[in-house]
Amino acid sequence: ENIRNTQDEEISCSACFDLVSQFVDLELSSGDAVTRMPKLKQHLDQCPACRAEYETLRDLQELENKGELPSLDDLQSLIP
Fold first, then answer.
1. What are the tens digits of pLDDT across the range 14-58?
2. What is the rounded CA–CA span in Å between residue 44 and residue 54?
3. Are residues 54 and 13 in contact, defined by beta-carbon separation less than 8 angstroms?
4. What does the alpha-carbon distance between residue 35 and residue 68 come to, in Å, rounded to a whole number?
5. Fewer CB within 10 Å, N- or C-terminus of the chain?
6. How many of the other CB atoms lie within 10 Å of CB of 35?
7. For the chain, counts of helices (H) and of strands (E)
8. Which helix (H) or strand (E) holds 63?
9. Half-sphere exposure (CA, 13 Å, Cβ side) for 4?
10. Are 20 and 40 in contact (CB under 8 A)?
């Protein structure tokens, strides 16, 4: 299914990784990340690994914005 959604010009996973925090910042501050970074959004829609990175970063940023970021001890307790 993802092959049908490919574009002539796409960004790589490494480029996505470099830009994903900027995408999250735009998304949470102005809501226009998709408009301003459409190639990144297209990559996130097709790449499960980059999408997981994006979702984790977004979730952590949302927690930080609410003042609910987990402590280092909390995070370490989640590691088996």
1. 999 999 999 999 999 988 999 999 999 999 999 999 999 999 999
2. 8
3. no
4. 29
5. C
6. 10
7. 5, 0
8. helix 48-66
9. 1
10. yes
Rounded to whole angstroms, how far apart are CA atoms 41 and 34?
A: 6
Q: Which residue in this structure is represented by tokens 């989640």?
A: 78
Nearest to 20 by CA among 79, 75, 47: 47
With contact defined as beta carbons under 8 Å apart, do 57 and 24 qualify?
A: yes
At residue 47, φ and ψ (nearest 5 deg) are: -115, 105
Q: Which residue in the block uniquely carries the two structure tokens 């959604």?
A: 5
Say if pTM beats, i.e. exceeds, 0.90.
no
